[in-house]
Please model this.
Amino acid sequence: MAILGGLSAVLLSVPFLVPHCGWAALFGLVPLLCMEKIGSETGVKRLWFWYYGVFVLWNALTTFWVCNATVGGGIFAVLANALQMAVIFALFRGSKKVFRGSVPYLFLAAAWIAWERFYFSAQISWPWLTLGNAFARTLTLAQWYEYTGSLGGSLWIWACNLGLFGLLCALADGRFFRWNGKARLAAAGGYALVLIVPMVCSVVIWNRYEEKGEPLEVLAVQPNIDPYHKFEALSQSEQNAILEGQIRQALQDRLHDSTAAPLLVLAPETFTSDVVTNDIPQSRTWRRFTALMQDYPATSLLFGASSYTLVDGPKPGPNARPTRDGNWLLSHNSALMADGRGSTEIFHKSKLVVGVELTPFPAFFTKIDDMLGGVMGRCVGQDEITLLHAGDIPLGCAICYESVYGEYCTGYVRKGARLLTIITNDAWWGDTPGYRQHLSYASLRAIETRRDIARCANTGISAIIDQRGRILQETPWWEMATLRGTVNLTDGETFFVRNGDIVGRICTFVFGLLLLAMIVRAFIPKEFRK
Model:
């Protein structure tokens, strides 16, 4: 039991830790399913302990790095996320008491993917280990995500695992050899088709896809400022000077060039904290950057800010905090676009990190947080996506954690974004797999939307990613650097952008039907059902 459980946890973890190993997920669940079958048939007591342990080990191996930012939060994330997986598995085991044959396994796959879909929109949301993310570093197998999104990958993983498990069960109990030749061929051939067809389709798309669009030059500036000592070591003015020096050094050829083509400069998430949304021009950082852009015609600067909105009068909501002068303050994690003309745009991050930026169910938890001294974040995001503009070029800006949400990012494209950008600060986790995983998820967003992505990270990795998800250029980790390159501006929408997460919706529907049937068969007497 322990060997099977440990093997499953390792196989599920490998794709998230080792490049080009997404294939391991295609049979990583088989040992877990075998463990459950053996445990059920031999009457192992407290079997929940074993499968919960598998999910805890999988979460710990892949997301242990959260503890670098917050030990308590990291332990909670591992245990709570594993618990939700275990609940899905417990429902599956319950369904085996009601359904027979392959139906419980269909229930398991549908329930799991329905949970993954729900997790994308839940207030307490941590979809980092969505099964489809296993191919984020094996891009030749994920090109069809432009049709299905990452949950299509989850469905493929479940189909392959269940198909292989079914064959192994048939071989183990001798059923496979009692079938006639056509039945054996159908079983083995069906599994082979489920395994191979998506691979072939993806490789064909990979080889035939051609980059589209008009070129735009971009510059990602990586100042490499340790966020844990950001204001202890440097004032905001000194940080601004560092960033300005990097920009001037990288753009010497464009100084006062009125004939220069458009160029977009990116600076990291939360670079400054002196922006008040009610009066943006009072920000020294904004004024300095606006003056800087005057020296570089046709250049726009996108930078991150911990911004604030001041509100007088009644309390504007549960996330508002009081100020000393009797007003209220709303916090945001924002992206601002500045140019030499003095115009600006602002976008507030909506997919917020629970605990650090977001107090979930604020009507209840803010009261508890107040008693604890206000330890949780209370950022306020936007109600809907808006775009920023580099000159007249519309683009979407995903701020850090938002780039994990595939269907959310399609909203930028539906609004008309011709380019996706990501600004982030991944230094909280140290030199661990965390920042590499985060970078790899950007590749999936590029495939799903077929948009180039310009990514700027405070300490790395800043990158330029093409429409196939390939990282064309990247900076080193934890080094001051600038990255200058070209992206393509594209129009048009993929099937996934136009139609959204069809796989998730269908699986949620199937799960709902099977759950209803399970409840009816479990709790309503046969006589009444007839």
Summary: The two ends are 41 Å apart (CA to CA). The chain has a mean pLDDT of 94. DSSP finds 18 helices and 14 strands in the chain. Residues 2-210+501-529 form one domain.
